[in-house]
Write a structure and sequence with these properties.
Rossmann fold, 2 domains, globular, 4-stranded antiparallel sheet, 11 helices
């Protein structure tokens, strides 16, 4: 896939171009990311959606320079401010990681030192990256804690992570991520471990901070409900590839790829009756990627060509593309699943 979508009136802050990342394993070379390309625009939220193993988290970790030691950068580029991040040394990356590009992980306890007071953890980041004095760093840390909604920040500055709830710990992690005025915030399933009420609060916080700070956000998730709440655009990944990309309303109300249909059909709603549709089968083994469309064996709408040739991207609109042979002019017309048809009938009522 090449970088097919460009919106001329928007500033590109990050560009991923034909990225291929593999991993050495005992079973062989696992091809985790296979030609991913996209633009991230200033001030937008781009959601990357897919099942576990689709390559979305590997893509985000490549952007952060946090790939595991057994990772192989086969080819491709990640451009930030005209610098290819894939060519930077670890020392060069430290000037960008946590300063220009920050990341929030799924489990806040994995990001926090359990034996260090939370306020000091924020302050240490400020001292290290912004060269503030200890007094100035403490004052700034308290301001950040207040900004992310920590009550009584002067008091809680001196408390340890175990004294905070999961939602409050995630707020501390967000404060650390934003301490250095990052331009890009990557959120890797940051609300998965939280209950629904707290999840909504964290999503609202990220949305508010995005608007106030003009952040560009990459939101990694398997939850399409979160996408509807958060994203301006959505990118759907399967088996290490992008299979559909478009504005959020296009992905929800005019989806074209059968995998996107399957994800939407498995999404619960207030109107859900009976069992949710499950996606049949299992994702392919990316040590030996299948020929053709990787989703073909799980796809009730698969054509014979899907098992022989990988589909190209077909243009649906200037902002919407999907890699499915069903969009070929000679393909038979098919009817999407009932759950998707119900969503499509609601187009115009998007967020």
């Amino acid at each position: 896939m090449t970088n097919i979508i460009t919106q001329p009136n928007k500033e590109v802050i990050l560009r991923v171009d034909d990225l291929h990342i593999s991993f050495k394993t005992q079973q062989g070379i696992l091809k985790a990311v296979r030609g991913v390309s996209f633009n991230l625009y200033r001030g937008e939220t781009l959601a990357i959606v897919g099942e576990s193993g689709s390559g979305k988290s590997v893509t985000s970790r490549a952007i952060m320079g946090l790939l595991a030691g057994n990772a192989i950068h086969e080819k491709g580029s990640i451009y930030y401010q005209d610098k290819d991040l894939m060519l930077l040394t670890e020392e060069e990356f430290t000037d960008i990681r946590g300063t220009k590009i920050a990341m929030i992980f799924q489990d806040p306890m994995s990001s926090l030192n359990p034996i260090m007071k939370v306020g000091k953890q924020i302050a240490e980041t400020l001292i290290l990256k912004l060269n503030l004095s200890r007094r100035a760093a403490k004052q700034k840390a308290i301001e950040l804690m207040r900004e992310v909604g920590i009550p009584q920040p002067e008091k809680r500055y001196h408390q340890y992570p175990f004294q905070f709830s999961g939602g409050m710990r995630q707020r501390i992690v967000i404060a650390i991520a934003l301490a250095n005025n990052a331009e890009i915030l990557i959120c890797d399933e940051p609300t998965t471990a939280l209950d629904v009420t707290i999840q909504a609060q964290i999503l609202d916080l990220i949305n508010r901070l995005k608007k106030e700070r003009n952040l560009s956000v990459i939101f990694i998730t398997h939850d399409l409900g979160v996408v509807a709440h958060m994203a301006d655009r959505a990118l759907v990944m399967y088996a290490g590839k992008v299979v559909e990309i478009g504005k959020t309303e296009e992905i929800f109300y005019d989806p074209k790829h059968p995998y996107t249909w399957a994800l939407l059909s498995s999404m619960p709603s207030l109107e859900t009756e009976g069992r949710l549709d499950a996606i049949p089968g299992t994702p392919p083994n990316l040590i030996n990627p299948p020929v053709g469309d990787a989703f073909a064996t799980r796809n009730n709408y698969a054509l014979a060509i899907d098992f022989e040739m990988e589909p190209p991207f077909f243009k649906v609109s200037d902002t919407h593309y999907a890699a499915t042979w069903l969009l070929h002019p000679d393909a038979p017309k098919v009817t999407p699943p009932a759950a998707v048809l119900k969503l499509m009938s609601k187009r115009g009522q998007s967020k």
